[in-house]
Write a structure and sequence with these properties.
Elements (H helix, E strand, L loop, with lengths): L1 E5 L6 H14 L4 E5 L4 H13 L4 H25 L3 E5 L2 H11 L4 H12 L6 E6 L2 H5 L13 H17 L4 E5 L4 H10 L4
Parallel strand pairs: 1-3, 1-4, 2-3, 4-5
Length: 194
């Protein structure tokens, strides 16, 4: 099973992923926690470039896609083929939102590029942790290059995620990320794919 977690920075994705992984492992399931960008040596190098250095929007887009392609081929697909549940912090929807809705690249082009980079691998479920970006910013994110974007940028990101969730209600589960972590865990497990 392949489950992704999306939302603005500071929404609580990592906290929810850790809680779900703990619960699934307690039930005896094999679970892999993954993230984009940044899994493996290749991903860590790209993560450093993307989050700590200034790169032009086109380079940013292609670095995210390169990371995703390597990540799917070398981490996600092999884990899924072994029967491992993969919980991924960000995936293709982030590229559509950050580079499309917020940076202005063509959304349909981004969806086609994601399809190529992922070899068509679509998550079984995507949990969208929705919270006002101003509240998320108060939660003490890492302060990387993307965190330092304008409040307007982060609002465009939030709106983009909500738009994608409306387009694909069968895949997305919208969670109110202003709720306490234990409530989010309960809601996520109740909406877990069969």
């Amino acid at each position: 099973m392949f489950v992704t977690f999306e939302g603005v920075d500071g929404a609580g994705k990592s906290t929810l992923i850790s809680a779900i992984a703990e619960r699934l492992r307690a039930e005896g399931q094999s679970v892999l926690i993954a993230r984009e960008p940044g899994d493996g040596e290749f991903g860590l190098a790209i993560r450093e470039m993307l989050l700590e250095r200034h790169v032009c929007p086109e380079a940013e887009l292609f670095l995210f896609l390169a990371d995703r392609s390597e990540h799917v081929r070398n981490t996600v697909a092999p884990a899924l083929s072994r029967g491992t549940t993969v919980l991924c912090d960000r995936y293709g929807d982030s590229t559509v939102v950050y580079q499309g809705y917020a940076r202005g690249f063509d959304i349909e082009l981004l969806k086609r590029l994601n399809h190529l980079a992922t070899q068509g691998l679509v998550p079984d479920r995507t949990f969208l942790l929705d919270v006002d970006p101003a509240i998320a910013a108060q939660r003490g994110t890492k302060g990387d290059r993307l965190d330092r974007e304008s409040s307007n940028f982060h609002q465009l990101v939030r709106n983009g995620f909500l738009s994608l969730a409306r387009e694909e209600p069968h895949r997305f589960v919208l969670l109110d990320a202003s709720k306490p972590p234990d409530e989010l865990l309960h809601e996520a497990l109740n909406a877990w794919p069969a």
